[in-house]
Amino acid sequence: RADRRVASWHVQDVMTEEELEKKVAELVASRGRKSTDHRVILRQLEVLTKAARILGPRKEIPVLAYLISAMFDSNRLIDEFMELQQWRTCHRSLTRILKLLEQNKHLVLGSVSSDTVGGEDLVDSESSQLNGANDKKHSSIVKIVGSVDTFILRLEDEYVKSLQQINPHTQEYVVRLSDEASLVELAESIRAYDLKVGDMQAAAAVSLLVIEHSYYKHDSHAAAVQKP
Fold first, then answer.
1. CB neighbours of 205 closer than 8 A, spacing ≥ 6?
2. Are 76 and 104 in contact (CB under 8 A)?
3. Per-residue pLDDT band at 103 (split at 50, 70, 90)
């Protein structure tokens, strides 16, 4: 049913910034409603992330952040862990954000409330920027829901939670272990971004994550996990 509803939900191949922001605002606003199917919202946000690519990183990054936030919010129970394909989609989306930041070194992330869905709040628009010398500074800020540091910590938490609940004698457990190397690689990219923007507290938290997954394990175990 979810696939059929996504298939019937059409977006134009080429969208204007205003059309994209309106679509995102509609989806984000519908997330708290009782009748909302979270699977449909996630699939529709994925569609919008693809549509946003043509509009550039300042539009694509906020949509990716909304998708990541929605994926984390879709898990309702405390002991419920994110299923593998959704975890990997979340990982890819976060990796995409870091890649865009690396390719556009002038961009810096800012934050907005998850309840804020107005079009001008997705990113700093030209009309909302200050005049004069501050224009350049404000045009480099991309506002997103949450932060990349929170996202990587939650992604790591979902990964650990899955290992705690999957039978270690199964192939499923072995498959999950293979995700650790990509998790650490992404964390290192986020740490590099934190250091670049001077957020030492966030960099320290992410560094601890990297250390926990890089050390205190037998060399043979570490080598097996890092195999492609």
1. 149, 153
2. no
3. very high
d(CA 111, CA 76): 24
Q: Are strands 141-145 and 108-112 parallel, antiparallel or unpaired?
A: parallel
Query: Is the distance from CB of 48 to CB of 6 less than 8 angstroms?
Result: no
Q: What is the DSSP string of the chain?
A: -HHHHHHT----SS--HHHHHHHHHHHHHHTTSTT--HHHHHHHHHHHHHHHGGG-HHHHHHHHHHHHHHHHHT--STTPPPPHHHHHHHHHHHHHHHHHHHHSTT-EEEEE-TT---HHHHS--GGGSPSGGGHHHHHTEEEEES-HHHHHHHHHHHHHHHHHHS-TTSHHHHHHHTTHHHHHHHHHHHHHHHHHHT-HHHHHHHHHHHHHHHSSS-HHHHHHHT--
Contact predicate 126/107, CB 8 Å: no
**Model confidence over 179-223: pLDDT tens digits?**
999 999 999 999 999 999 999 999 999 999 999 987 655 555 556
- How many Å apart are CA 37 and CA 60, to the nearest integer? 24
H/E/C letters for each residue in 104-170? CCCCEEEEECCCCCCHHHHCCCHHHCCCHHHHHHHHCEEEEECCHHHHHHHHHHHHHHHHHHCCCCC
Per-residue pLDDT band at 128 (split at 50, 70, 90)? very low
